């Protein structure tokens, strides 16, 4: 078996200490660089050719910083103004204009039916994060637009499905703004409204504001447990208070200043059905939560490989937890296909939860049987592609290459076989070696490669249409900028705002 060498710290992604390696034939038209010396030797490359290739790669690596292309301001803006931000800007702008017209009493409909604007936005916000909707959206795009439309259209499809979070954030913030407007109107007309309606309106405002604040990226990315507890549980409090707010508001007669206990009137209001829809969308994923058996392989103190029964489609992610409702963490799914016996999660030690998987491996974990789709799930749209990943980002990338022979894998790290163990190494060796994988061992090669040259050479040699990148924030930023400068269509890891 060829040697696949591994990472000192898989969470650091080893992007700063990489070295290029020799070339490996991949088609009748071109060649692509391969990583491990063992690979090159077994594929028939002679030692002299390897040494020359190493020297040339190191020379290119040492000068890569000097000749790094500088993006224009327009190109930098295009990278920043992602489809996520475009969706967010559009949604907030449209709602903002409507809200302004309502405040100025130019548009009177929102004053009479403010609840529709509040709940309409909130139900769309929830819909965008619903696993069923996400899977259906990807299924529709992959089924209808795989390979045959123009490339620009398929790239647009991937961009849309990857960035629906912009609609989620925009609608949530807009719904909150309309909710504030509604409570202000109640305050102004407090003599005609019952105190109970006003109180529940204020409570709903507080719950929604806390839920939104906890989802800001700097909170979500650095304090995951705080984000989860507040966004989820305070969000549930907000849903409950919304129910009370809607039922009380629709039951109180402003003309007679009395309660109307007739439930038929409440059911006939559109507010009721909006809240009902929100509740169903929130509950659906929780109906699929199960405690399942897991086998854990700990090849090194830095990584745990989790094995679950049944195979999976490529491009999916799984949420797991030791508890049925608390502390869920998402990891990319590695699987040979839907009919495989097992699927795997690669969990790099980073926080308390992942460390506990190594130190105290459980026999069972809680998971949602309904998996959600990541950007790699749209790889079906393309004829050929390059999948770039660093460190434990392999978990989100490997299935795409295992299940699609037209995708090429570039994996960057150090001492991969030692760190990630025989299970992952075996999958790569059986399905990708030698023609569809490039593995860079930073520790063995002792230096940083010209990453963009590696990607560019692979992109053109493989005749690829797109590059998908999974890396840390800095690595993702550098590679996305490099691909933009080189005119290579690429999609990277998404950190929202």
In short:
This protein has helices at residues 37-42, 47-62, 73-80, 83-103, 109-112, 114-128, 131-145, 151-162, 165-188, 195-213, 217-222, 224-251, 263-267, 270-283, 352-359, 394-403, 416-431, 442-445, 451-461, 473-486, and strands at 23-25, 31-33, 252-253, 258-259, 289-293, 295-300, 303-309, 316-321, 329-335, 342-348, 364-368, 372-373, 385-390, 407-413, 437-441, 466-470, 490-491.
Tell me about this structure:
The protein is α+β, with helices and mostly antiparallel strands and 497 residues long. It has 20 helices and 17 strands. Strands 5, 6, 7, 8, 9, 10, 11 and 12 form an 8-stranded antiparallel sheet that branches. A 5-stranded parallel sheet has the order 15-14-13-16-17, with helices on both faces. A two-stranded antiparallel ribbon has the order 1-2. Helix 4 (83-103) packs parallel to helix 9 (165-188), helix 10 packs antiparallel against helix 12 and helix 12 (224-251) runs antiparallel to helix 14 (270-283). The protein starts with 22 loop residues before the first strand and ends in a 6-residue tail after the last strand.
